[in-house]
Amino acid sequence: MKRKVTFLSLLLLLSLSFTRVNAQQESFLSDVNYSYLDKLIATAKRNYPEIKVRQATVNSSKALLTQSKMAWFDAFTASYIYSPRNSLNLVNPTFFNGYQISISVNIGTLLSKPFATKAAHETYNIALYQQQQYNLTLEATVKRLYFAYLEAQADLRNRSRAVTDGEIAVKQLKYTFQKGETTFHDYNEALTSLYNQNSFKVITELNVLTAKTNLEEYLGVKLEDVK
After folding, report:
1. For residues 152 and 211, is the Cβ–Cβ distance under 8 A?
2. Which segments in the chain show pLDDT lower than 70?
3. pLDDT of 47-73, one tens digit each?
4. pTM for the predicted model, two decimal places
């Protein structure tokens, strides 16, 4: 009879542990801090190298657009001829004395400039759109990594509770086993379960560190430095 009571007590303890784990999982959303998440996104946009590459591309295409607009003057060529007064030039006779200014227009260059300017403008727009698209992608990536980090932390808390509950169960079964009220099989099963829970905890600890590292890769700083 005592063995049955002890075994039922163990089942009740494991059931309570399972209930606590489920309760923690159900409250996972309460761990999300959207204000802190906004800071993480802002930090990633400030530090992540790809963001700087996109901005440099926008700046470069904008400069090329400005250069294309100023290149309209390339179609015009100005020149001058100076003929001193009271001079006689029998090889290239001139009818005017002093400075003579002339302006020539390259029709081909003049006609091609609108197309070149339009192409430069479209290139600038593409750079802007790509920058906007990557900003959205970065925001979504930081959110996913932040949520994954919180999930890993919650899972670690659950595993830690399971280990604690397993240790209590093992101590209880060890006591009853020493008194002869529990079989070695039941005691060994509890030890095996505790070993498995510790193994799961180690894996979960690694998952937390991995999730933290993945998030910090985009932040460019330690997670603890984001206040």
Report:
1. yes
2. 1-27, 71-106, 108-112
3. 999 999 999 999 998 888 887 777 666
4. 0.69
